[in-house]
Amino acid sequence: MDGREVRAQPGHEVVNPVRPVPPITSGIERPRRNPVPRRGDLGRRAATTAAALAAAALVLFLLVPLGALLARSVGDRDAFTPETAATLRRALTLTLGTSAVALGAVLAFGTPLAYLLARRRFPGATLVDALIDVPMVLPPAVAGLALLMAFGRRGVVGEPLAAAGITVGFTTAAVVLAQVFVAVPFYVRAARAGFARVDRVLEEAAADLGASPSRVFRTVTVPLARPSLVAGAVLAWARAVGEFGATILFAGNYPGRTQTMPLAVYGRFEAGDLPSALLLAAVLLGASLLVLLGVRLVGERGQEGIWR
Question: For residues 232 and 191, what is the distance between their CA atoms, to the nearest angstrom?
């Protein structure tokens, strides 16, 4: 074992230990066996394929009508007449103006309500919470009729206002009220969820550092809840722009005064002017997409800035 020769003694046999020779594997490729797929893998693949097919079908269902609308509107070059241009200018201006005012009212009155529902428990909170959802499930025509019974000339609120010389029904103010009525739930729901997710430890830390409650709300609560607030504002604005049923019953369809873009599209279509209706619809679709994309980009940049 130490390098010296081992000699056999008389009557004894020397057994030299034999070490196993390692197999030579260099340069020799072993045949690869295809792994047998497990049942779990097959199930996951089938579920992924089914989900992809369902998603593709839904995307196509949404894309095909919009693409057909744009294709038909662009293909007809005779649709842009002076009358159509005037209708488009009046309706688009009125729609953007009233929806902006409605969104401002929704933000001003909906934000405190959403904060209270998320942070405070007060008598009747459950009833108020349920009442907020009513415009979402209420048919627009019923909403318009309810607004007319409340703010019309013979309504509960409208009659005293009419006696004072203030008319609400069938005016531009009625358009704004109808838009606010149908858009409030979309913002309040999203804002409430955003306020509920804000970590109160951060608010308490800011308060311990000497910040007033209003400053804590402006510098801590609102920035952290900004993504939900932006999403709710976008949904509310989109619902206000697309409002039709409540507006036509409560405000009417008067060009330049109450005729918003959806009402203008309906008016042109009912008059038998399909090319003009398609053109107005395409313009409304394009404007809505541009505003939605812009607001989404601003919201994403704001969300990234919070965590820098």
Answer: 6
Tokens 């203030």 -> residue: 166
203: in domain: yes
Residue 166 located in a structural domain: yes
Is pLDDT at 125 greater than 50 in this prediction?
Answer: yes
Distance CA 101, CA 140 (A): 20
What is the value of pTM for the model shown? Answer: 0.80
Q: What does the block give as tokens for 172?
A: 């531009």
Residue 45: per-residue pLDDT = 87
CA atoms within 13 A on the CB side of 178: 36
What's the Cα-to-Cα distance from 305 to each of 63, 87, 268, rounded to whole Å? 33, 42, 45
> Domain count of the chain?
1
Residue with tokens 């509960």: 156
Buried residues in 267-295 as b, exposed as e (16+ CB within 10 A): bbeeeebebbbbbbbbbbeeebeebeeeb
pLDDT in tens, 93-109: 999 999 999 999 999 99
